[in-house]
């Protein structure tokens, strides 16, 4: 029996058949797993909902004629014409627990004279003779419930409800207007915009007057305003009937009835049709997360029980909303809800939905009391409500099948993975999710943080923090902020001066408060639009800083509508500063509509400078630059970019028409020349950045060509124009509308204004009759940027280069072909003539590296950690041990052990004979994979724990217990004196056995200070380190020192005679405590400590004056000589944990031999070089090249076409090369020299050196070398380089594969099939691909730096080096040395097969695996234990 929460299906199968079925099912896959392999960890629950969705689709197909037919419930229930065609009607209701039912109403004097008959399955029906009930008559259904109680209910499927003002209760309305009163739609649905810009509105409060506005008033007054402001969609709140006006439409009582306060159903249709005529999509708030608990007016307790449409009992009640929860997979409830979706789409012509409050639907807890940090256990645990998931999939599937252009937006605060992936891929099917963290961030900044303390990195993080390939709608403030009791952005910025400082007559000059408010209001809106998502939203009135809050009529305000309206008159008044806000919003959207950057996939953050408060990024063909500094302006500020073209300012927040100071006018009329590269971009410009300004720069070619107006076919038909050349354009200027010229249309309906950057004009028909625009002020048409514009339907302008463009048109100059990147690109660290140099934003303490942190800052999508370097830029993850199997298909540690045994039985050197295997190893770290990880540290520490245990040591790994970890056992506690008092810590234990007498004790230190959901080391939202980190990690160091003494594990403690591996600054106090505390009291006299530096850039520095050694850390004052360091800011008031560790530990190890040398130099020592040199003088500093995982073995690799070893590598590699060429679409040519690159697409990885010589590589110059080449490049990163990869492949089919992405299995196949692997990295502290390549017999071509130099033996002299060489090294980091060494490698492949083969065999026989690395570690353990203690 396969059990689902909603259905049981029984099969008659043999056990063998059942196993076979399960095996086939497990082999199935979904596209979401390919996009995010980490989802496979929770695939059971994902398959539950996917299979549930498929089950319902299948059942509906068999029993209901399909889901679309099933969703026609409104043709079964409610009032429908009888099939007899005689004018009679059938009324039907679903009331499963009713004993008897009557239809009552005006037609029968509200008497029980019209009984319904039971049809079975809870259905009751009655046929009403022709003429017995008339249009607009009010009705209710009266029923006797199963308990004998009587209830009057509004029909659940009623098409309209009216309030009886004598009782204040609602009645259903028989709404069947005669044919001549039914509204007929005239205009087609608009196409789905590429750049969705939503204007969120409430019809009832959309009037300037204090009243409830009507649908027709909204169509007449507000829709043209929305179109003029540049929005292409309107999202209507409170459309479905809700008895309580003040609920904002979220407590729906009649789901099929439009809110009657604003008009009739036919008027709703006219409003929607008017929007379509203006090219505006109409989305509606769909409230299916719950229904009103008001049973007198709504469907709650419809049949007298609490479980008709909803769940019964507590499960059916939402405690915070006081509403009822639908039973989504009850057959008739599902019909009701899906039919409701189809009803709004087809009856009213709506174009999509914002699904309200779906966080409540996704989880049994409704998200109450939960925080969501991104861990998949938060989304896919027992709290997941699979029934609701299935409904959302079915609803989205139905919507997109019925109306392919429809848009669905999910309002989810949790960030549920796959929410915005197609149903066919295994997702929920939404098109967008609301980016709800953005408005929260800006409110927090304005409330709590002074302007000069705004964190640029934090702002960018929140704006770009979205899941890969899942679109979001960005917005800077929500409608909730406009409600009484809260504040909009404008109110937070200007407060009382919203009333006193907005008149240009009374206050001709801005006050400081208003000046700040104007500037930041515009900057926030622009950066949110440009960087925050793939769509944009504003709530009506917020765009112009509406000065009044929303206060619905209620007893406390005397049922007044005074504050339940929108003051459009304020924004339209030229003497009030509100019009500056409105002008900017209009121009901002016009810019986006013209150029369409919001839908452009090219997105790259160039700069986030905390000191200068500058943010710069590319989006599409545009460069956006913001200076948030409140006082500092910068001249000649150099900003990197990918555009190799002069740049022009097309929009800035400081323009005079927006109330600005016009400090950027020069850039509007003059272009900025292209300069050399900086900030990891190939080109740059120098700009003036006034304080509190934002500017948008376009490529020069995009502002050329003037303005072209095209008369669309729909416009000509609408106005009956047969001859377009009979129409003319009359240009107007200024408030006086002075006539500036006349331009005629051609026969094709085209008028060209070649000299115009912008234009304001009339369209004049024969007889001097104007054809006014329903959108523009005074009936005029207006464009603000050069390009082609089409006049559509009633007279609105569609930008040819914007959201509706399908092809390039004349006047929209095509962007120039991307030029090859220059041979040399100036790195970000190179000196420039700019007055300030962009600074990297330091990551939280313990980050893997500055490089990884910078990569993370530039990432737009929130990819899974294992697909990115240190969880940052989408790139190549180089894991070092078991964690590698997360993204491959190996099943468990036993599989790893089996592969290791197989490999070690081959031709491998014997292990080092360690002399101290009986000495326990205690590995201490602030993180350990898979429980906690920010990057490489956690993964390497995990490898230590596994490898030392495999070698035979009794092994303990100690780390904080940051959360509730599975399969943990409490094993004891201890009390530790710290910060002036005793602290109790608890220990939790998990044992992992790897074989006989072989395993690791994982110990997790439990204390309240570690429970921080915002991050391990700091708050990811604020970017700030936790203030008590010194306490937290001092506690960890002491708890780790106590663990071997107090924990009885498997019958005994570890005891004093052990060796500690302390990793990075977080546990830097461990050797300090051993030296100054434990050994002075006779404990740990024989123990030793090895301190491993993974990243010297982070040292753990704190002020000594704030954290005295004795009172805070419990250390004697004499420890000051080890811990007191120097710092640029703290001077000598500096407590340096890493320095203390280096000075007191018994040995220092680093990640590679070269790195151990680099950190002893002034250039690479981060101020620690002298201390390390002193340590090295005592032979206590060394570097060990990290190992590679056992999966990288060609003898056992399951992902390559043919396994091979040293004896048969030529045949095996030939087969792998052929299979790789076939798989990637390359010509199957065994004689081509196949080059491979796999890594991040960024300057540091030297990708520009490869792309810069592709033409040379592929051109046959008759030398027998070049031209006989194929190239595979795989990676993610800089969009500029990604474009080069795609273009290279497109232009060289069969010879180049430019794979923009990453597939770990393809990486394995590249190592087995490529002849040369290219790693021209600028720097590489360790590096792993060069080691993978050698193990597979692919020769690496690398830059002579860091770990690359350590691991590759170069061929400098053929005869001298042929027996030892494993690759080719070049230096310096420039194109010509790289070309020369690559040419040597290719020439050897083509002309000296014997030497090439000899080098391959040397490579294959090399050993870079962890056992080899552990051999070196074991040597250092022996030396450390046999040497006297350092102190």
Name a few traits of the molecule.
40 helices; nine-stranded antiparallel sheet; alpha/beta; disordered N terminus; 1431 residues; 63 strands
Report what the structure shows:
The protein has 1431 residues and is α/β, with parallel strands linked by helices. The protein contains 40 helices and 63 strands. The strands form 14 sheets. Strands 3, 4, 5, 6, 7, 8, 9, 10 and 11 form a 9-stranded antiparallel β-sheet that branches. A 9-stranded mixed β-sheet has the order 46-47-48-45-44-51-52-56-57, sandwiched between helices. Strands 12-13-16-20-21-22-24-25 form an 8-stranded parallel barrel. Helix 7 runs parallel beside helix 10 (386-402), helix 24 (1069-1078) packs across helix 27 and helix 35 crosses helix 39 (1393-1404). It starts with a strand and ends in a 5-residue tail after the last helix. Mean pLDDT is 86; it is low at 1-27, 801-897 and 903-909.
Strands, helices and their partners?
Blueprint: E1 2-3, E2 8-9, H1 15-27, H2 31-35, H3 43-64, H4 67-70, E3 78-81, E4 89-94, E5 98-105, E6 115-120, E7 123-128, E8 138-145, E9 150-153, E10 161-164, E11 169-173, E12 196-202, H5 215-228, E13 233-237, E14 240-241, E15 254-258, H6 265-277, E16 281-286, E17 291-292, E18 317-318, E19 323-324, H7 331-347, E20 352-355, H8 358-362, H9 377-380, H10 386-402, E21 407-410, E22 432-434, H11 437-448, H12 456-464, E23 466-467, E24 472-474, H13 489-494, H14 497-500, H15 512-531, E25 535-539, H16 568-572, H17 578-595, E26 603-609, E27 614-619, E28 622-627, E29 634-641, E30 647-652, H18 665-669, E31 675-678, E32 681-689, E33 693-699, E34 707-711, H19 713-718, E35 728-733, E36 738-744, E37 750-753, E38 759-765, E39 769-770, E40 781-783, E41 787-792, E42 796-799, H20 850-857, E43 861-862, H21 893-905, E44 921-924, H22 936-951, E45 955-960, E46 969-978, E47 981-995, E48 998-1006, E49 1018-1019, E50 1024-1025, H23 1029-1046, E51 1059-1063, H24 1069-1078, E52 1088-1093, E53 1101-1103, H25 1109-1113, H26 1120-1123, E54 1124-1127, ...
Helix pairs in contact: 3-10, 5-6, 7-10, 15-17, 23-24, 24-27, 30-34, 35-39
